[in-house]
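Archive entry: two folds, one per protein. Generate the first.
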Amino acid sequence: MAAIEAGPIKVKVVRVEDGAEGEAGDEPYACAPIVATFPHDARAAGHVDREHEGGIQVDLYASKDHLEKRDYYLHAKAGGSKGGGVEYVSSSLDANLGRPVKYVVGFLDRETRTLELMAPTHHASVAHFRVWRGKDDPLVMKGREETSSAASGDYDALESRRNLLKEFGSNKIKRLIAKRERTQIKDSDSLFLEDQGSVLRWATQMAEASAAKGQSEEDQLARATEARRRVLPNHDLRATTARQAYPLAGMLSSRAWDSLRASQYYRDVEEGSESCDEYVIDRLAALKGGGAGEMSKEETNRALCLYAVLKWLHKTHRRAIRCKKGEGVGALASLLDLPQDLVLDLVLKFFKSSGPGVWECSKSSRISLKLHLAVLLLMLEGYSVKTAALAEELGVDAQEAKTLARELGCAVSGDSARLMKRKRAAESGDATVAADLESRLPKVGLKKARAR
């Protein structure tokens, strides 16, 4: 908060109950020009207007959970030459309680030297930080390394700062955060990056696990191959062209396509709305109203719309969807703001009910979701894409992007991935036969036990 040249201002906290005023306690409370906290459940307890110390207007708040303890939160506006017209808040809580502080968001006017606090006060829960209160802070004194239970809130500090910037930051900051989230490698602070694992490795692990159940090697290979193909988008193993290998129409039922076409997502894509995903906007501008590669304009709009929905699910609901609106598909559709037919056909392909109002996305489903996104990107880019661009869009590192491309049957060379690039599969004189999708998919191998 901006410094005040006139120094701190002393404010007496007054308790207001049922219109009657009373002293808050025997000890005076100092309200320095600092930002303290409004709890999430604070409610107005009264209003006091005092003409002392340069003119102080005070709004007092009390926490519903602490009324018996006489815990109050003060919103004061210091007028006149001493206060500099700065608004600030403080509380009557003892600093030794070690409570986490939720900063109030405000807008500072440098010309008038006033700070306008955000209203309503529940916006204070956007950010959540632990404040060090000096060398005498009981939580950091030598010999005491434990953390107060009150200091461990519902928000992770780093993620809270991201949320704060996403909510109130400039467009430039928001774009920078989004870019970093898409390109960073998986770590504990990632917002939506998933487990780094390929379908091939996962399928091989399943095959190895089945060996303990006494299955033959042939059965293990069959099971692993089936597991790998189950997570691929709808495909035709005998197809010899990319368009036939992963047909767009087969990704959804006709009923789900109709519901998607009637949704706001589709209208936004058709109109090129600024609310669309950044890639969708860029791709629409590049195509200038036409189709992508072999696709018509209608097919391109469908692919872009489906891509936007899946990418939103991938980023926003990486492991589970918790629906507080109730149980059932209807409540889930209402929460996601998607047509129910689309939820039935698309969302439930990746998210399975695991309890009342909880829909979980398993590891194999997360891999499948990324493969669906990769196929749509390949379609929109004419079945040839830079792996760096693929990695950025999926929020994975470059190596995983290449692995995902190979899982789909792409030929990866350098920084490029191409789907169903024609090659000779067999020769008979001058005749050549185009390789089908099945021959291009990676083969599952079983790990042999070492001889001792």
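Generate the second and append.
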Amino acid sequence: MSKKIKRTKVPKTSASGIRSTKLKPQGISFSFKYYQDGHNKFSCNGKAATYWLTLIDRLKALSGLSNQELLVNRSSTLRCHPIRWEDTSENGFGLPNEEQLVDTPYQFSLSSNEHGRGVHPSFVIGAGFARANYKTKCKIGMHPGRVHGFLIDEVFYIVWLDPDHLLYRAQG
């Protein structure tokens, strides 16, 4: 006759009494892991403090959005739309394994004024689409300043700061 084996009860807390905590995504985070400050076109040397303060304010405001909220947003302050590398002065970011790391390029506006302070972003979520991985380009102000990068899940990886909008060739 076979003997039944009793089920072992595993405690829900560790021996130390510390419980594991699972964090829920609270919005987009920003990373400079792939930031390239040495690019000859995308330099921020000599930019006024208001440029940096506006950039930080807008990144903080955008961090309250999910990646889907950001990418489907059709408000005039964000102007979120795809980047077509063939319309730009570059062929991509030039990152190792870029094809596996990033996907569709995007552009969106970070500020509705020219490097101004005290402007709180108003976002209106509209129709659109979102995917898990994006190359993204952020516009700072109506002035053509940009942030170029890509989004993976809820992390936006900043690659270039482009305060003079040099990625796109002159339209004429």
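Annotation attached to the second fold: Residues 113-134 have pLDDT under 50 and may be disordered. Residues 29-162 form one domain.
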